[in-house]
Amino acid sequence: MSISFEVIHKDIMGRTGKLRVGDKTVKTPLLLPVINPHIQLIKPKELEKMGVEALITNAYIFNKSEEFHERAVSEGLHKVLDFNGVIMTDSGAFQHSVYGDIDFSNIDTIKFQRAIGSEIIVPMDIATGPDKTFEEAEEELKITMERITEALSVIDDGHLCAPVQGGIHTELRKRAGSQVKDLGIIFCPIGAVVPLMESYRYKELVQVVMAAKSKLSPSSCIHLFGAGHPSMFALAAAMGCDVFDSAAYALYAREGRYMTPQGSYKLNELNELPCACEVCRTHTAAELKNSPDKERLLALHNMYVTLAEISRIRQSILDGTLWELVDERCRNHPRLLEGYRELLKYTDQLEKSDRITKRRFFYRGSESCQRTEVLRYHEMITRLPAGKNVLISVDRETKGDYDTVFGFKPPFGPYLPELGETYPVGQSEIPEWDFDMVNSGCKGIIKLIESNEESSFYISCSDSWKSVISEALKGIEGRYSYV
What we know:
By secondary structure, the chain is an alpha/beta fold.
């Protein structure tokens, strides 16, 4: 049995789904804790009890380990690690590049991963760093694709994944996505993005992921390699990333760093533990700082926080509130906010995947004006019927003989009274009007006027908004009058 992926619910480009790997099925979005057999702050069996359904380990480490090599070959990974869920193995391409191990080839790692019972197998791709020129990245992508094709000659039962490389060059990421799609491989990691995340280059991360996603099959399961901190999971999920792997829970613990969904703190600077996990409810900050088991306890806390964020994202997709979660998380760091704003430039691409109706629309500032729901409503406005004489009542009632009367609700714009209780106009929560939302609503007015050339339009509004509306409607001054 091979790998298959079924999408259950969607919001923006985020999906909840079922990833079937052989005879096992796991829920997505999915977290793969990274396990090093030599250093296990949390045992795989403990992770399984915490609800972890899959993990990832490194084939190179097992291959070179005097302690674990023979056991892995003879007993298999699941028995060695004492874990019943899905196990994915990274190829060791990074270690190969660092240590220059000429005896560890692409075919060698593929065969070794199969021999030790890996269920998601990674070929020896080249992780092209952000410092590489287009020409260098292009050559490395060529090698990666050759190795994927070579690996298919060994792993032909659907358990091979296909990393999407190309550095920071979006055209190469698109090319890689298209080539991977043509190979028909379901599980597709987007690789070499850790340097972008480590240096908070979230704007470029969005560009890279969205480029790859634009060419990958919608039925592909997307793994964002190395995306280990929960503060950016929501942004990644909104771009359609389904799987994350995390070594951060352990790495941060070794550095004395305490994770939260909003960011991380140095444990030594905390007087309180702002978390409801088992570790934080059974220890004070002082007790945790002074515990001889501090590193392990901190790793457990970090894992609880990471798993909770995955669950939170799944629920927000189900509720249709992923935009609100992205907005909340991305306001915790200026660079994340930069990534969020970059994502909003891809509204046309996002709108194709976003669901048509949701539970609600919460206005959270100017970024909300660029969301998919607003774009979709503006496109829908062109289909609304309008008579010969049309009134758009912005913020006051006006009596008169009009064939059609529209209300006005920013950031959407004009709406017929019959639509006043429907989504998104009726199911939206907005504060007191601001310039950004009114300007967005005026885009809807422009769409309505331009799609009804035979109609005469009249706008009723208070003096406080007239100048703003007039400025927003520049270019169509002769198509409407104020009343």
